[in-house]
Design a protein that fits this description.
Structural class: alpha+beta
Strand content: 15-25%
Strand order of the largest sheet: 3-7-1-14-11-12-13-23
Number of strands: 29
CATH superfamily of the largest domain: Aldehyde oxidase/xanthine dehydrogenase, molybdopterin binding domain
Distance between the termini: 63 Å
CATH architecture of the largest domain: 2-Layer Sandwich
Mean pLDDT: 96
Radius of gyration: 27 Å
Largest sheet: 8 strands, mixed
Shape: globular
Low-confidence stretches: 1-6
Number of helices: 17
CATH class of the largest domain: Alpha Beta
Length: 763
């Protein structure tokens, strides 16, 4: 279905964010800063072993400390929640460690006190004794390890492709997602050349500047939780399931988020504060420190093995991929990352014969979950680095090689889904033009060498998911929008208000968007995967159209002639004799989706839309130190219609700069399962001195015909091609190919010396 422009003039406006004044003035409310009467603070005592049976927990000294209200352990939790396991894919994560600790930093006990400093000090007095077990740390080794993170797999029942795993034992494999298209073995046998490479990406952190925080206020027959969550509807359903209560007894309220990036999805601290509040019979708040975020949720490290067959003309005829995802101790949403990103591991290319195995692995590390890109940046680093390596081996220009093989509209993606409204060629050509790819390029001189690289990426939107919206037109004509999509800085409230304004022909600034509250705002699957503008955008459009139709019906009811311009407030006065009443429009949306075949992974409708991006970069490498400077970074995306051009630009730049950190510096370092750089003093995110000298962020002219006003999400797109573009430029500059992230100065320096045949000690 195509949604045409209705004439409201709101789509395409760079409306300032609706919440901007509140945030700039310091009046915006965040969970981390909230207090409620009678509230206790909880501080977490954490495991010091990566894998071990809990022999004892001695909290006697902590309990006697002045000011300590209570020390909560798993023994207390099971008294209020008999089966205290949660998770979106598997019910594998206990509220507090039970019987075993599965990663360093896992919550084992919680100290409650009115003073957070007292609670923190008391955690230092708790002593736990463990029987240590062999830890599983590497995602590839986890496949054959004789030590198991979980004794038995417990699928949550939410996802059909996991149900067959129920009760499986003696395995660290949480999911094997497969895709089989064509005859790969035959194609490899007939190929003129075959290339095979392996790539690895590291464990990274979301680093939202508002750390995780939640407050629970449990009553005898209800509970209210204030939380910085990206998915209040899911949190309500999961808390209700844990407590055995109907959902109408569970209320989730979400104020502003100081960043989320996927980390604040599903249950994080909410189950723990709920249990503590039920045990203590007092409101309880748990707010993590910046350091504690390293023990909450991370990005998936991945190992990607990719093999391609190419014919004499330079066409890719076959591709085989094995992807191993390090999911950490608990699955979280890792199986969805494994599947929904896994089927694009072959890249944005037209390949008739594709074989993909994508494995979700349990390990004894901090759990991994969604992080901006949902697995795609890891895969794109692999397949676009591989693409350049193949092109160079064939002595074909990397741009020409991509042009020859790029997937075009009307052709099937590896799953069999026909590509529509997907501007892969356009973004590639846009970046090539901006980089003046065909012109002479300054290669530098002396110890400073210059290179350039390009990369292309394709991502499927997570499907199927559901969104519901309500538009309430008040008696004075002012509209109020009720949605559970969470604005965590991406500007979704403003974009949704623009959709309402477009349909009702009012300024977006006049639309009030209600803060997320599950007693008030209707269901939304979650703010993730760049799905909101498409899915909730449709629901909002439908709700506004429903309200508009009811306004027109009211106009007819009160005898207004067709085409009259009587304001809405006047219609209410005519009907009720005073300014009273309201009109409520509702809308819900769930896209078409065909579940993939279990054996082949094929589907004629795997996703409602594709996200597309290309990046180009020019870099300078100091061959004496290995330091890389980004001279120019160009990002181009296809997001269909730009609902708010200014917000689109900031989304593109924000995503690219976040990925720049994951590319050049960010890495959680581990020693036997223990994070050794769990602070922002040692974990290096992108700073102002790391910014590219020139950065261009653009969305090409495009239209998504099945989208609201032709618009689709953009928050993740430009994360995908940044890493391989820089890795390709590095190879172009100095002839070294790094196949593992991050691309630190030390890694570059070591590679340069290895190329010269010199040991590092001789340098």
């Amino acid at each position: 279905m195509t949604t045409k422009q209705l004439g409201g003039g709101q789509i395409g406006r760079s409306v300032p964010r609706l919440e901007a004044r509140e945030k700039v003035a310091g009046r915006a409310e965040y969970t981390h800063l909230m207090r409620i009467p009678g509230m206790l603070h909880g501080k977490i005592f954490r495991s010091t072993v990566a894998h071990g049976r809990i022999k004892s927990i001695d909290a006697s000294v902590a309990r006697r400390m002045p000011g300590v209200f209570q020390v909560v352990t798993a023994e207390d939790v099971v008294k209020v929640i008999p089966n205290p396991y949660y998770g979106p894919a598997f019910h594998d994560q206990p509220i507090l460690a039970m019987e075993k600790a599965r990663f360093v930093g896992e919550p084992v006990a919680v100290v409650l006190a009115a003073d957070p400093h007292v609670a923190d000090a008391a955690t230092q007095a708790i002593v736990a004794e463990y029987e240590e077990l062999p830890p599983v740390l590497d995602e590839v080794e986890a496949m054959t390890a004789s030590s198991y993170v979980h004794e038995e797999l417990k699928p949550a029942g939410t996802f059909a492709d996991l149900k067959h795993l129920k009760g499986q034992k003696n395995t660290n494999l949480a999911l094997n997602a497969r895709l089989r298209r064509g005859d790969v073995d035959r194609a490899f046998a007939e190929a003129a050349r075959v290339f095979e490479h392996e790539f690895r990406t590291q464990k990274c952190l979301h680093v939202p500047f508002e750390p995780f925080a939640a407050i629970a206020d449990a009553k005898a027959d209800s509970i209210t939780i204030y939380t910085g969550s990206q998915g209040p509807s899911f949190v309500r359903a999961e808390i209700a399931r844990l407590l055995g209560w109907p959902e109408n007894r569970v209320r989730i309220k979400v104020p502003y988020l100081g960043g989320g990036f996927g980390g604040k999805l599903y249950i994080k601290l909410e189950a723990l504060v709920a249990a503590c509040s039920l045990v203590a019979r007092r409101p309880v708040k748990i707010a993590l420190t910046m350091e504690e975020q390293f023990y909450q949720i991370t990005k998936h490290p991945a190992t990607v093995r990719i093999k391609s067959g190419v014919d004499n003309s330079g066409r890719i005829t076959a591709r085989k991929c094995e992807v191993f995802w390090n999911g950490g101790a608990y699955a979280d949403i890792g199986p969805r990352v494994t599947h929904k990103s896994g089927f694009t591991a072959g890249g944005p290319y037209d390949i008739d014969n594709v074989w993909i195995d994508s494995y979700a692995m349990y390990t004894n590390m901090t759990p991994a979950g969604a992080l901006r890109g949902f697995g795609m940046p890891q895969l794109t680093f692999a397949y676009e680095s591989h693409t350049d390596m193949v092109a160079r081996a064939l002595n074909i220009d990397p741009l020409e090689f991509r042009r020859k093989n790029v997937l075009r509209n009307g052709r099937p993606q590896a799953t069999g889904t026909i590509l529509k409204d997907t501007a892969l060629e356009a973004v590639l050509e846009h970046v090539a033009d901006r980089m003046r790819w065909s012109k002479k390029f300054d290669r530098g001189s002396g110890t400073l060498k210059r290179g350039r690289g390009i990369a292309l990426a394709l991502k499927a939107c997570v499907s199927p998911t559901t969104s519901v919206a309500i538009v309430n037109v008040n008696a004075d004509g002012s509209p109020t929008l009720y949605i559970s999509t969470v604005d965590m800085g991406q500007g979704s409230d403003t974009g949704m208000a623009q959709i309402v304004g477009e349909v009702l022909n009012v300024p977006a600034e006049s639309v009030r968007v209600i803060a997320r509250d599950t007693d008030v705002t209707p269901y939304d699957m979650g703010t993730l995967g760049s799905r909101s503008l498409f899915h909730m955008g449709h629901a909002v459009r439908l709700a506004a159209e429903d309200a508009r139709q009811k306004i027109e019906a009211l106009r007819r009811e009160v005898g207004e002639p067709e085409g009259s311009n009587t304001p809405i407030s006047g219609l209410f006065v005519k009907k009720y004799g005073m300014k009273a009443g309201n009109i409520v429009g509702s809308g819900s949306y769930r896209p078409e989706h065909v579940e993939p075949d279990h054996d082949t992974g094929l589907s004629p409708q795997i996703t409602p839309f594709w996200m597309v991006a290309a990046a180009g970069t020019e870099i300078e490498v100091d061959t004496e130190t290995g330091r890389v400077r980004i001279l120019k970074l160009i990002n181009a995306v296809d997001c269909g219609t730009k609902v708010n051009p200014r917000i689109v630009e900031t989304q593109i730049s924000g995503a690219a700069l976040m990925q720049l950190g994951f590319t050049m510096s960010e890495k959680m370092n581990y020693d036997g399962g223990q994070v050794t750089n769990a602070s922002l003093a040692d974990y290096k995110i992108t700073g102002i001195g790391d910014l590219p000298g020139v950065m261009i962020n653009e969305a090409i002219d495009a239209f998504q015909h099945n989208a609201p006003f032709g618009a689709k999400g953009v928050g993740e797109s430009s994360t995908m091609p940044v890493s391989p573009a820089i890795a390709n430029a590095l190879d172009d500059a100095v002839g070294v190919r790094l196949t593992e992230l991050p691309l630190t100065a030390e890694a570059v320096f070591r590679a340069l010396r290895a190329k010269e045949g010199r040991a590092l000690a001789d340098a």
